[in-house]
Amino acid sequence: MRVLIAPDCFTGTLTATQAAEAIAEGWRRSAPDDDLTLQPLSDGGPGFLDVLTAALGGATVSVTVSDPLRRPVPAAILMVDSGVTRTAYIESAQACGLHLLSEGERNPMVTSTYGVGELIEAAVDGGATRVVVGLGGSGTNDGGAGMLAALGSGDPEALGRGGAALGELADDALERLGPVRERLQPVELVLATDVDSPLLGLQGASAVYAAQKGATPQMAQQLEAALGHFTEVVGRGIPASRDLLSGKDIRLERAPGAGAAGGLGYGLMLLGAHRVSGVQAVLDVVGFGALVQTADLVITGEGTFDWQSLRGKVVAGVAEAALACGRPAVVIAGQTLLGRRDSMELGISGTYAVAENPGQVAAALADPAGTLSRRTERVATTWSPRHA
User: Fold this and answer.
1) Most confidently modeled range among 115-129, 353-367, 371-385
2) Which of 68, 70, 131, 312 has the fewest CB atoms found within 10 Å of its own CB?
3) Can you tell me the distance from the alpha carbon of 256 to that of 131, in angstroms, rounded to the nearest whole number?
């Protein structure tokens, strides 16, 4: 049997590569004669550069940028030359990722995307004519204001102090955004997002994701109001673009992906970036369709399989690719919080949790690779022909 193992990272415990290896180890113990292909994946969040580097090669440029609290942190840029285009791949989580903060430091009221702007600046200084920014796993909710400040759009003290401070912005806070947009106009900017959420509203950055970054409900409401003020300041300084077909103003805050990474998607769109699905971009680069066609079974996974998995995440992308080729796909996750109906709508043939009840969560966190491997060993007894 040919098995394609293609997980995302298990956030906070295992990288995508570590997860793939743990799944493979468990499968081999139960079905040693099966042919396994390991293809770790990312949706633009943590692990984005690792997956692309393995697939594309290129040159890795080491830089030092600011973390969400403006402390120095090491990061990398992947440079890939192809004909007349020099593409820089950036993983925004290396500068604004939640994993860079301790539990006590997680507060999207004060965390900033300033370091992402430093990464983009370094990429452009390095000769990139195309910059692809992977979004996901952020610990920020500042609408990309910090990033814009690092690129020279306004006062870093006003724009780089986190999401809450955006509610106090003066009308001229982004007075240099126009020149920055002009300077970057020759560079194609691409945002590869893990979600398609807008910036504001019930499905927006603050309402849906701020809690994961340490915000209370009251803080999330304050961040929503602050982002709303931020868009008003932007609107006063930049003429609205018009849709050529409808003649109506284009509202970037409503655009799919504007709410990704705490609104970093919105900030990038202000610079002229266009959005692509992060997972689809990765699947295309690694030639995932061809890999699926050679497999009899596809296994994917992530830390928590929940409603967010349905929208732009690795699991959804893998399931769609498997369904298109008529291959069964199963999910092995740390926890599964979706019912069978939702899974089947994705085209998933089975879901399996490492922690099958609340009492097993602590054990899974204490030994993530071992528990994932042992759960996979049991899954193999269901799917491998050896046990039929």
Assistant:
1) 115-129
2) 70
3) 19
For the chain, list the domains and their CATH numbers. 2-40+287-387 (3.40.50.10350), 48-279 (3.90.1510.10)
Q: Is the dihedral of CA 301, 307, 310, 313 positive or negative?
A: negative
Per-residue pLDDT reduced to its tens digit, 260-317: 999 999 999 999 999 999 999 999 999 999 999 999 999 999 998 887 777 778 999 9
The two structure tokens encoding residue 85: 């285009």
- Which token pair is 20? 């793939």
Residue 164 has pLDDT above 60, yes or no: yes
Q: How far apart are CA 39 and CA 54, in angstroms?
A: 10
24 within 8 A of 59, measured Cβ to Cβ: no
What is the pTM assigned to this prediction?
Answer: 0.90
Element (H, E) at 194: none
Average pLDDT, the chain: 93
Supply the DSSP string of 75-103, one letter for each residue.
EEEEEEEETTEEEEEEETHHHHBGGGS-G
Which residue, among 8, 13, 7, 17, has the nearest Cα to 362 in the 3D structure? 13
Amino acid letter, 22: A
CA dist 138 and 265 (Å) reads 11
